[in-house]
Design brief:
The protein has 113 residues and is an alpha+beta fold. The protein has helices spanning 11-20, 55-72, 95-111, and strands at 22-25, 29-35, 42-45, 80-86.
């Protein structure tokens, strides 16, 4: 579980990222990010009923993302607010591949600075 300092909770902050952020695409995960004033990165995970019909699947996708973020949280560059959009294939992907994909997306994020 991610501690509260890493969570993007306020609706206005999430809307700001969704409105002005830059999108990066991966195989299982898409992320939208925006620079912020915070020292630590903050995350929001959104799942869509259109992609995951059952709540069980939506929650499983969120749990997998949180677990992967927990493994690599210190490798993520600070000063970003990030909204994560999981794709349907995340449920069937190996966990190690999921971590590699996060690392690859965060490398792209560093290049976009």
């Amino acid at each position: 579980m991610l501690s509260s300092q890493y969570r993007l909770k306020k609706k206005k902050d999430i809307q700001k990222v969704l409105g002005k952020g830059i999108m990066l695409y991966g195989k299982n995960i898409n992320i939208k990010f925006l620079k912020s004033e915070n020292v630590l990165p903050r995350f929001c995970i959104t799942t869509n009923k259109k992609i995951f019909k059952k709540a069980v699947l939506r929650n499983r996708a969120k749990r997998r993302i949180r677990a992967a973020l927990f493994k690599i949280i210190f490798e993520i560059p600070g000063y970003y607010d990030i909204v994560i959009f999981p794709q349907k294939t995340i449920l069937f992907e190996k966990f190690e591949n999921l971590i590699k994909e996060f690392k690859l997306l965060f490398l792209k994020l560093k290049k976009n600075e």
